[in-house]
Amino acid sequence: MPQPPRFPAPCSALHLPPTWDVRSAAFADITGDGLPECVLALWRPWADWPIRRWSQAPTPIGANRDARGDSAHIAVLRPLTGGAYQKVWIGSALFRPVLALKVEPGGRLLTWEGTYVAGRSGPAVALSEWSWTGFGFRLEQSSNLDPQKSLF
């Protein structure tokens, strides 16, 4: 039987919305400000960009969801006392859902990414490296993986 993922203590103590399905977490200074954050790979109910209320253009994130209607996101949260947290950044619905993540020394984010068709328990099809820009992440490099040999 698969074991549930283990999260760093500061991250597992957060009182998160019940609709968030956190699949992976790291506790590290991803933003470079000297304070560690909880970096989460999570799934939650899909929602379009708020700006769509004023625009008739097709949404670029419309297909970024699974059969249940959930989408994958990266969240950067600063833990506070008593399980509270400050939202530093929560990204839009990802094109390729993140199945697992790791923060490398120096603050680089590594993500193992799957597909919405395979879902949150499917195999990883890509490994990507990201860096924090001050408002979100910039893709530094990405490589395709053989899903038959994937760790996830």
Structural class: mainly beta
Uncertain segments are: none
How large is the radius of gyration?
Answer: 15 Å
The side-by-side strand order for the widest beta sheet comes to: 1-2-3-4
What oligomeric state do the depicted chains represent?
single chain
Estimate nothing, just give the exact number of structural domains: 1
Mean pLDDT, nearest integer?
Answer: 90
Distance between the termini: 15 Å
Number of helices: 1
Question: What is the helical fraction, as a range of percent?
Answer: under 10%
What is the helix/strand order? HEEEEEEEE
Q: How large a portion of the residues is in β-strands, by DSSP E?
A: 35-45%
Protein name: FG-GAP repeat protein
Reconstruct the topology from this structure.
Blueprint: H1 9-12, E1 21-28, E2 37-45, E3 70-79, E4 85-90, E5 98-103, E6 109-113, E7 126-132, E8 137-144
Antiparallel strand pairs: 1-2, 2-3, 3-4, 5-6, 6-7, 7-8
Description:
The protein has one domain (9-149). It is globular, with a radius of gyration of 15 Å. It contains one helix and eight strands. Strand 5 (98-103) and strand 6 (109-113) form a beta hairpin. The strands form two sheets. Strands 1-2-3-4 form a four-stranded antiparallel beta sheet, with no helix packed on it. It has a four-stranded antiparallel beta sheet with strand order 5-6-7-8, with no helix packed on it. With 152 residues, it is mostly beta strands. It has one helix at residues 9-12, and strands at residues 21-28, 37-45, 70-79, 85-90, 98-103, 109-113, 126-132, 137-144. The longest helix is centred in the N-terminal third of the chain and has 4 residues, at 9-12. 3% of the residues lie in helices and 39% in strands.
